[in-house]
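Appendix B, example 12.
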Amino acid sequence: MYAIHCTRPDITFIICKLSRYRSKSNRDHWKAIARVFSYLKRTINLSLFYSNFPAVMEGYSDASWMTSSGDNKSISWWIFSLVRGAISWASKKQTCISYSTMESEFIAMTTTGKETKLIRNMLFDTKL
């Protein structure tokens, strides 16, 4: 979890998918975990890099409507960058069922707005 939250956002999706099967894992799940470790070993020199660009925060969000046929819930995601480096990102299943693509996008924008407010308050408290 440290890797996906602090240094390697590129493995967030697969780790979140695999974590759903931690109590009922089978051989295919263990093969996928081995592939993730192999990928991390091959890409050990990749990392987040922050440089001297203007301190402008950018944020992006999106939603995919009803990706799971089991519970009919959509997935929201967002990413925020500061000086061209990712500072916050997430991909989460929405807590309620949306009945249209637009509704799932509004839910994603609401959760992204909450994260924006949290990051903004944190940046005001930090000297850049």
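The chain has four helices and three strands. The first helix runs from residue 2 to 7.
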